[in-house]
């Protein structure tokens, strides 16, 4: 029996409808949620991502500021702009689109963003709060993945979850969120000698390595939940994920598509974080 599709587009629309209602109520009380987005350089994919984020802000009733800079922008100028936004009471979230030009240190940029406005959830403070089980901003993509898993109605209590990938932005925070939900978590990566040995035991697999066909049908436990975070292109240029969707969907119980799965939820959780930041100021 083919896997049930986890529709990230539909789920994101439900959450965004609630965000818009809360944002309107907050605006009526004198505080309109505000997000600043900074784009440095001309990376085409980054330009698309930024455009989608700004559009989502408008649809949710947020105030948004978009700063576009040439790739030659000095790091000092970027840091100065971030500090100005930190001090701006109309801005509740700051997002600097990655990747940045090579002459700019991304971690220095991330750490310059105020902890109160780190709606991307990438800072050492946010990561430390997550690792310690304390309140704070959660990285948007892993948080969105958790919402997708929750939408299946399957409890993670006692389940075995495998995360493929150990990045600071997805893999590591994903593992921590799954642990908080009482799953038993295994993190696999490029140094794992037999990936299938672990994924075949998993009730939940989150694939986040940026390489297509990393997870194939023979590597999946029947009935498993499969979350595909990857964004790649196949041989003909079509968008695809890290999972062999056609094959795995014949084995898994639940699966996210690419596109229309994790992607919409990432932007949605950015809106949620920005809204919650604004709500804390009232």
Structure description:
By secondary structure, the chain is α/β, with parallel strands linked by helices. It has ten helices and eleven strands. Strands 1-11-8-7-5-6 form a six-stranded parallel β-sheet. Strands 3-2-4 form a three-stranded parallel β-sheet, with helices on both faces. The N and C termini lie far apart (50 Å). The model has no long low-confidence stretch (mean pLDDT 97).
Compile the SSE list and pairings.
Layout: E1 4-5, H1 8-28, E2 34-40, H2 44-60, E3 63-69, H3 75-86, E4 93-96, H4 106-112, H5 124-132, H6 140-150, E5 160-164, H7 171-180, E6 184-188, H8 195-199, E7 204-207, E8 225-228, E9 232-233, E10 239-240, H9 245-248, E11 254-255, H10 262-280
Parallel strand pairs: 1-11, 2-3, 2-4, 5-6, 5-7, 7-8, 8-11
Antiparallel strand pairs: 9-10
Helix pairs in contact: 1-10, 2-10, 6-7, 6-10
